[in-house]
Amino acid sequence: MIIDKNSPVPQYFQLQTWLMEQIDQGVFKPGDRIPTEEELSGITGLARATIRQAVQNLVNMGHLERKRRLGTFVLSREQTRDQRPLIGILIPDIRSGYAPELARGAQDEAARSQYSLILCNTDDLAIKAAHHADRLIEHRVGGVIFVPTAAPDQQNIRILETFRQRGIPVVLADRPLADAECDLVTTDNFEGGRTAVRHLVSLGHTRVAVILSTLYSSERARLAGFHAALAEAGVTPSPELIVTTDDPFSEKKCEQQARALLKRYPGFSAVFAGHDRIAYQVMAAADDMGIRIPADISLVGYDDLNIPHSVSVPLTTMHQPIYEMGVESMKQVMRRVHGDTGEWVERVLTSRLVERSSVAELRPGRR
Amino acid sequence: MIIDKNSPVPQYFQLQTWLMEQIDQGVFKPGDRIPTEEELSGITGLARATIRQAVQNLVNMGHLERKRRLGTFVLSREQTRDQRPLIGILIPDIRSGYAPELARGAQDEAARSQYSLILCNTDDLAIKAAHHADRLIEHRVGGVIFVPTAAPDQQNIRILETFRQRGIPVVLADRPLADAECDLVTTDNFEGGRTAVRHLVSLGHTRVAVILSTLYSSERARLAGFHAALAEAGVTPSPELIVTTDDPFSEKKCEQQARALLKRYPGFSAVFAGHDRIAYQVMAAADDMGIRIPADISLVGYDDLNIPHSVSVPLTTMHQPIYEMGVESMKQVMRRVHGDTGEWVERVLTSRLVERSSVAELRPGRR
DNA sequence: TTTGTCTAATTGTATAGACAAATATACAAA
DNA sequence: TTTGTATATTTGTCTATACAATTAGACAAA
Fold this sequence. Notes:
Number of domains of chain A: 3
Oligomer: homodimer
Helix content of chain A: 40-55%
Structural class of chain A: alpha/beta
CATH topology of the largest domain in chain A: Rossmann fold
Distance between the termini of chain A: 89 Å
Largest interface: A-B, 47 and 45 residues
Strand content of chain A: 15-25%
Order of helices and strands of chain A: HEHHEEEHEHEHEEHEHEHEHEEHEE
Shape of chain A: elongated
CATH superfamily of the largest domain in chain A: Response regulator
Number of helices of chain A: 11
């Protein structure tokens, strides 16, 4: 029996549910005609008005289509005016760093499957991320790509949870989050930092300075790579050559730190900058102080920002596959949207050193 | 009489229309209770089932809300479970030029009203824009900010029309479109070009070269400003100093053109570049050819890209209020979404000259 | 070939009436 | 004060019935 007259569930709703089941199970396939209202009335024992109420709801939901004189038909997933999912992307600031590249990669991949991308700037603030999250939920996004904010992991996890509670899959991009139960697409910041500093070491630099912010786990990993590379070479870095801050990047603060560091010259022969914008500040400060790059000091950056090549010295830097990170994040979130419930995936993309002109071999005789 | 029994228009539909009119005219205000189904039955002479059909439709559309025992209520625009509108933004490429700044301005303004922004990259291709347009329509965006593609105006107009047919308001950003019937937020490219070249003229430069692409109306307007400023000074520019292309910007092509132009030195003393990326190519080429900026040649750009200031020569350039353009575009499209049906608005933001170090006064004696 | 007409099938619109379920409100009881 | 209970009101669900509108397809006419 399809309909239980004694159930507290309204009979039109029972019928509606039954019809959906038939469609989901493929009994009524897309394009099929379902029984006429008269027939359904006979099958279920309900009045035609009740049948209509059930069918109307499914029509409203986009699962069925009525055609006068012909009957009522099952719509295929494509015909369903049920829109394709929206995907939200939460990034710090579309204007800065790798964000444009990441967003573009994600958008291109989304477009390939005719998905659309909602852009949210968090400014690395958990509170802004939370507001955007509410909005994304309201818009019923199918999934989210989330670059964790600079806030403590716990706050980022909370944002993650708001999505999780609603069954919205989230893929973390770029920065991992401790204890986060979700997919992650990132780059090998530890390996990258090690590669960069190994390069310096291989050219004879042992007194290597580093300058970066410890606010972000990605930069902390690069710092760890820095230590690892020096340790391999049997070098213990002197503390005064490790310049860190736990504030977000600011040109002014960074310039001050760069100047302070450069005053110690010639106490070191190379600088590893946590990212390119820091590197360019170091470059500008060195220029100003009459220190030549790479003759006096070698400099390695991180990110490989696309800068017009009229800079005074083309920067040797670690190139991150940011565009690809956007693509992979989107691919992964789309897999989840399509119902993939497999193990959490951790995808680590490898960065590579791009040698330009800001690094020189250390002249023998100096150390 | 509310209902015309002889009309071919179904009576439930007549009632539905009437109810909407009452709401729109403020007879039933948001939060008000409309007459009970019984009362409406009395007023219209229709059966309760018919009343329900009309009311149900309005409930489905999000205009009314039923509460058991209390009645049926008019929802305010905000309560409407109808999500807050999405706004689409169609820009060439989020990675390049002013796009990030524009997108950020738009997104910030959207966030203030809790709107969300769907990002679409057109790569200046009409076909991509059209695909994105379909997607945006599918997602029922409330409005669109559209930076016209580099394709002929007619093709852009066609995209505009697809939105218009569905009552989706469009605001053009940055580039105007001939005969386009919609709002426009742009900057004064003609004035900007004139200001830049006037600046050169005021420092004694009369033999001024220009290099830009005529593919975009914005750059064409800057070229017109270039001519205007020279005309004011009674100077007729020599044709070989006007270097144009009608291809989109490419580093390679631009570098070739810059080199070709610079070979004519000292046939001119200043260059006006159509935008900063061109300017930086000129700067690099000059560097390479041993021509000093600004000692030998003065250089003015356009856009004021936020470049780390380790470039060899800080660029004097026209700063465009791009962020503000994003904000204003969003404000305007939101006004339209909220039902503003006033005259088409044309908002022109003014750019300003930012003097840095790439322009020098022409030494007297030379011309 | 094209055009018009008829027919039967199916959804669309509409009525009249009945009982169910939820709930604001008032009032009673603890 | 809090808690329970009754009541009236309104929407929610459902039946049974009738006729209208639309249209695929068959068939006829031009």
